[in-house]
User: What shape does this take?
Amino acid sequence: MIVLFTDFGLEGPYTGQVKAVLGRDAPGVATIDLMADAPMQRPREAAYLLAAYAPWFESGAVFLCVVDPGVGTARPAEALHIDGRWFVGPGNGLFEPLLRRAGAVESFAIPVHPGISASFHGRDLFAPVAAKLANGLAPASIGLAPAAPFRRPDWPDDLAAIVYIDRYGNAMTGLRAAALAPDARLAVGGHEYRRVRTFGDAPEGAAFWYENANGLAEIAVNRGRADGLLGIAIGAPVEVAAL
Amino acid sequence: MIVLFTDFGLEGPYTGQVKAVLGRDAPGVATIDLMADAPMQRPREAAYLLAAYAPWFESGAVFLCVVDPGVGTARPAEALHIDGRWFVGPGNGLFEPLLRRAGAVESFAIPVHPGISASFHGRDLFAPVAAKLANGLAPASIGLAPAAPFRRPDWPDDLAAIVYIDRYGNAMTGLRAAALAPDARLAVGGHEYRRVRTFGDAPEGAAFWYENANGLAEIAVNRGRADGLLGIAIGAPVEVAAL
Amino acid sequence: MIVLFTDFGLEGPYTGQVKAVLGRDAPGVATIDLMADAPMQRPREAAYLLAAYAPWFESGAVFLCVVDPGVGTARPAEALHIDGRWFVGPGNGLFEPLLRRAGAVESFAIPVHPGISASFHGRDLFAPVAAKLANGLAPASIGLAPAAPFRRPDWPDDLAAIVYIDRYGNAMTGLRAAALAPDARLAVGGHEYRRVRTFGDAPEGAAFWYENANGLAEIAVNRGRADGLLGIAIGAPVEVAAL
Assistant: This one.
């Protein structure tokens, strides 16, 4: 299985061309669109989302991950084998939280051939590598050499910031709920939110936080939208306060 | 064939995870995205859309339907076999117009196991059931017990309201055109619209209603958009007047 | 392979129904969403996009192309075999730049049977033809008669206008970069843009044009958005000035 995690969108020309490469190079392998609206050009916020969603997928999955504002510059390109799943994409921090939480890691550099597009590495560089790995080919056999992964030691284990706002207006943080005290309050934009188990446990119209279905602390409103609340925006800082 | 009818969107993380479950539990079964932008959190409007679009699909299709503002509460979960098609989703009225128009109906309750997510029944409860039904398994063999379907006897046979606004700005009503007099006028927001056969039969820029390709009465503008017209919004009431 | 190029969107009910037809009539044939957000109801701008993206796809691909404001009127419906690829859709100019740049062309008229929907030819007329061609059936065997293609001799070889704005805010023109002098400047809305190789070659926040990964001249901003720049909108004229 190949899982796409990008900021490419689905309707425009980018994801379709990536899938054409995957269909050509890995025919018969299922492709899943996990996210095509990862935080645009923001590898930091995207990284904590990816780390929350990737473990839900089956072992053996190959993740093609592109949130890559530095495409065409000298930033590394890499393929990481982390706890049985492959992650292919730019070396810009996108894999930092995964690495931070990993058990077994193998790490490879993807050589950038001259002559490929400078602006569409998702199609021309990463998709062919992801396809070959999904076919079960060994890294050495497809030109990947062992290399230390790109790291961001300055990034935190959990990101106390809003990392995604979904179409319902719910705001995901980069904080794992399991890492928070059961009675922790989260503050964004000067307002504090208390924890509930799920939407129906809050009064209609009330804002709260809860552990979402992938383990992240998420701010929401029962039968309403959180994205209009003061300070709720991608990248906005979140403060954690125990009661 | 599994047909998805949800308000999950395609680009965010929800539809992809549902498809991962379907791919795991029903490998080789085709999945079609019918609508991922069904009226958000509005089972009533969504219900009349679903009833208009479902009959177009082949007999044997399994519809996975999630417009579910009550997820995690005690609302029922159900699987209905209606005229040769399966419908899996929440018991909140989403299937009421289908039931109202049905011939043969079998109805089953889906047990909610403790331990599944309280906020993502689409992935954790409904998708596995839809996959198994698409595999041809019998309801009894997958833990479904016969039960009366959830009903909304207070809802009408056709909904005199705007139920969907498409990307062209056309506004679908919940009224079947075949149930309207040929010369019926529709009034929304104080303005009346007359019927034409298709776009080219109205002057450029003129607003009208017509029978869309799935049988619903739809308000549109030839080479223009109807969504800016007075009163056109999801849920807005529509009045029917014969000439 | 069937490639979809439409203004239908993915989330609403249109693309899903088209795919249901393709799955029924051409089971096992891969379908790729190239663009579902082609310039809405604008065959002229869409035509130059299609001509830039289609050659990237493999020989033998069948393109189902629908940007069709005249659906239901007497405009022709056609299937064109251009340099080894099929293009199925309305005769409204959408294929003009492809024809202008073509080597070998065969051209066929698609008969419009009475009784199909007047408003959804994508599903009811074009998809069945595309599916049959993707199955390798000969045009004559599926009722297609040779006919001259619809032409727009008044349209230019390259379109000096904005034809698409992507989700990053980059603005594609209908001009092939290879047809421009290396030091050409592009002017839109009274502002001039110079050429760079790729994003990283411009200062942060600076606007420029570059050759995108499919050969079009595209206006962009390094780590910013071009779509807020003066005059940047679909259809806006572009002036070319050599230094």
About this structure: Chain B has a mean pLDDT of 96. The radius of gyration of chain B is 19 Å. Chain B has four helices and 14 strands. The CA atoms of residues 62 and 86 of chain B lie 5 Å apart.
